[in-house]
Design a protein that fits this description.
Number of strands: 20
CATH superfamily of the largest domain: Probable tRNA modification gtpase trme, domain 1
Largest sheet: 6 strands, mixed
Order of helices and strands: EHEEHEEHEEEHEEHEEEHEHHEEEEEE
Strand content: 25-35%
CATH architecture of the largest domain: 2-Layer Sandwich
CATH class of the largest domain: Alpha Beta
Number of domains: 2
Distance between the termini: 41 Å
Radius of gyration: 20 Å
Shape: globular
Length: about 375
């Protein structure tokens, strides 16, 4: 591994479990364990799995104008958040291109923004450009914070063995402060898999203890550590976008199908002028989901043909472990974005018939909203 790559507090736990370590977003992470990606995928869909997400960035915003700063740099309307609630959002450049996607959490006296590992430093520096405009302060908590995701339909009974926090009372995209295994924690009902579950934030030094205690608590259900490979196939079956693949600075949230988190009526924010103009004119390209109608594995970068002409490329694709056929996402011309539109994915110089569909591809989610 490169000397510049970082390790999460759980690195030794991954080694102990036989994880295959690969470089990812500047970190040494487990891509899979001996059971393999497909087995790990099914484990999360049917029981429960444990994910190391300590590499994510945590940016705390404090001060009298903390909300104003959050509103300025994100597209969603954080003023609608109640204490103990979270929301999905996007950072935009002035031209409307996406800086990153994120989750904003409202605490009694501050906001916390969780950002992608590959963009953590970029996002921090981006927000700090506008910090002087507000009576607010950004504090980077990334190195101090450990984050574990417990995901799967059996997550709640497993976690309940380690906490007195009322997990039933934590609704989807809400969180509570409590203890897990006697350790102070923030417990949020969020995740990136399409299954019910929790993300547990603790002090970085406490993360290995929480990890081991969760594995022990979930042993009756067959809980297992899950790597990056299954994390990607799980999120893709739900049509969840990945920054760098499906979202980037060349596309706006409106083009990426994220108009639902782009509140153009909340007032001015970074990129709002460009986004209002784009909405008025209509987008010319749009991120869509597709399913293959013949056997094939649609990989990132494969060409997409509409009416026989190359019109885009696959941004994310997988042979779905749950469904048994190829699914993916791609940017296509707006006129080809309607569900039911036939397209082709070029795999090994052959056009494989596909059809535009509205995600999620996997419909049997255990998430309770």
């Amino acid at each position: 591994m490169s000397e510049t790559t970082k390790r999460t507090p759980l690195f030794e736990e991954h080694q102990r479990a036989g994880g295959k370590i690969v470089p990812f977003a500047g970190w040494e992470m487990a891509v899979q364990y001996p059971s393999g990606i497909v087995a790990e995928h099914h484990k999360v869909r049917t029981a429960a799995g444990l994910f190391d997400v300590c590499h994510m960035g945590e940016l705390e915003i404090r001060g009298p104008q903390a909300l104003d700063l959050v509103q300025h740099v994100t597209t969603n309307d954080a003023s609608k958040l109640a204490v103990g609630q979270a929301q999905y959002s996007v950072f935009c450049y002035e031209d409307g291109g996406a800086v990153d996607d994120c989750i904003v959490y409202r605490f009694p006296d501050h906001y916390l923004i969780v950002v992608n590992a590959s963009n953590a430093a970029k996002d921090r520096d981006w927000i700090r450009r506008f910090e002087p405009l507000f009576d607010a302060q950004l504090i980077d908590r990334s190195d101090d914070t450990g984050l574990i995701a417990l995901q799967g339909p059996l997550s709640q009974p497993i976690l309940a063995r380690l906490t007195e926090t009322d997990l039933v009372a934590i609704q989807y995209y809400h969180f509570a402060e409590g203890q897990v295994a006697g350790i102070p924690a923030v417990i949020s009902r969020t995740g990136y898999t399409g299954e019910d579950g929790f993300e547990i934030a603790v002090a970085a030094a406490e993360t290995p203890e929480i990890w081991r205690r969760l594995l022990a608590a979930g042993a009756p259900e067959g809980i297992a550590p899950i790597g990056l490979g299954a994390r990607d196939s799980l999120r893709l079956e739900m049509g969840y976008a990945l920054y760098g693949n499906d979202i980037d600075d060349r596309h706006t949230p409106l083009e990426a199908g994220l108009g639902w988190v782009t509140k153009l009526d909340k007032g001015d924010f970074l990129g709002s002028e460009r986004l209002r103009a784009q909405k008025a004119a209509g987008v010319t390209r749009r991120l869509v989901g597709f399913v293959l109608r013949e056997k094939g594995f649609p990989r990132h970068g494969y060409p997409v043909r509409c009416h026989g002409e190359v019109a885009g490329e696959v941004t994310s694709g997988v042979l779905s472990p749950s469904l048994g056929y190829g699914v993916g996402m791609a940017y296509v011309p707006a006129e080809a974005a309607r569900p039911g539109t036939p397209i082709e994915i070029v795999i090994r110089d052959r056009g494989i018939p596909a059809e535009v569909v509205r995600p999620p591809f996997y419909k049997a989610s255990s998430i309770r909203k």
